[in-house]
Write a structure and sequence with these properties.
Order of helices and strands: HHHHHHHEEHHHHH
Oligomer: single chain
Number of strands: 2
Number of helices: 12
């Protein structure tokens, strides 16, 4: 009986969050059904824009979960990075990856029943491009996540001393940094094209290998909410480990994989954190577009996301 209740809750939550692009009768007719007339273009545009959601109290309440979830995420991840490096462990990348996986899984479980558990503009933008949410809801969520990222960075700034803040730049996302050299200041880090490609590839893998399970109602029901959140955390942790290890370049902080997390320290700390900051937004956006294209290419009988 308990299992049956969980399935019903997940289905009802999914129905509240999704925005259907077109009814089945306006695209590919289902077997045994006749194809009806096309939906009015105005109705389709209304569904895609979802302007009524701008005035929906439930959506704004859900965005509060996104804001708080992202704030806690940024605070947790940034303090994990600083603490791991401060302890001078022999395998900091591995330790960080395991802790990241755990924190992400817990926060997804905490926010999923309320907002769908995005806490990441990558997930929200992918949901928009695949037709699961409207433009208005995506804008509200990304705004909330961005504010949450800033609040999380402010919380980190409040608990660390000025020396740690300067040394680790609030654990913000960096492509390059400037260090003292024999002939003056020297820029070290990763090349712009390399960092951009790494962000694109890691974002696509994140969506393809884990987030798609949450988008696909069939898989989400089969493996369960908890397992989906655990898989999301594990995949994200693996990508953090890979991106920070495969480059092995001082000055590069690894793939951001969450633009809101990168935005927070950049706004609060500023300075060199703005150098190449666009990469942590552009890369994931391209990765989301590639993922959406892949989803559209899947035959309708093999996808259960709508």
């Amino acid at each position: 009986m308990a299992e049956h209740r969980v399935v019903e809750d997940e289905e009802s939550l999914y129905d509240r969050n999704k925005v259907q692009q077109l009814s089945a009768s306006t695209t590919t007719p289902m077997p045994g059904k006749l194809k009806e007339g096309h939906a009015p273009r105005a109705s389709l545009l209304r569904k895609v824009l979802g302007l009524e959601e701008l005035f929906c109290l439930k959506i704004w309440r859900a965005s509060l979960a996104e804001l708080l979830g992202t704030a806690v995420l940024v605070f947790s991840l940034d303090t994990i990075v600083i603490s791991t490096l401060e302890t001078e462990t022999k395998t900091p990348n591995l330790v960080m990856s395991v802790l990241v996986a755990f924190v992400v899984a817990v926060l997804l479980l905490a926010t999923y029943p309320i907002s769908g558990g995005h806490i990441n503009p990558i997930v929200t933008f992918a949901a928009l491009l695949t037709g699961l949410i409207s433009i208005s809801r995506a804008a509200i969520f990304i705004l909330a996540q961005s504010v949450g990222g800033i609040l999380g960075a402010l919380a980190v700034k409040a608990v660390v001393n000025s020396a740690i803040e300067r040394t680790y730049s609030l654990a913000g996302c960096t492509v390059t940094i400037v260090t003292p050299g024999q002939n003056g200041p020297t820029v070290i880090g990763l090349g712009t094209s390399q960092a951009l490609w790494l962000e694109i590839v890691c974002s696509f893998i994140f969506l393809f290998a884990s987030v798609w399970m949450a988008f696909d109602l069939r898989q989400a029901k089969a493996i369960g909410r908890v397992m989906v959140c655990v898989i999301l955390g594990v995949v994200l942790g693996l990508l953090v480990y890979i991106s920070t290890t495969v480059t092995a370049t001082k000055g590069y902080g690894g793939a951001g994989l969450n633009p809101a997390r990168c935005l927070g320290p950049a706004v609060v700390r500023g300075g060199h954190l703005w150098n190449g900051h666009w990469i942590f937004w552009t890369g994931p956006a391209i990765g989301c577009a590639a993922f959406a294209l892949y989803v559209k290419m899947i035959p309708s009988e093999h996808t259960h996301s709508y």
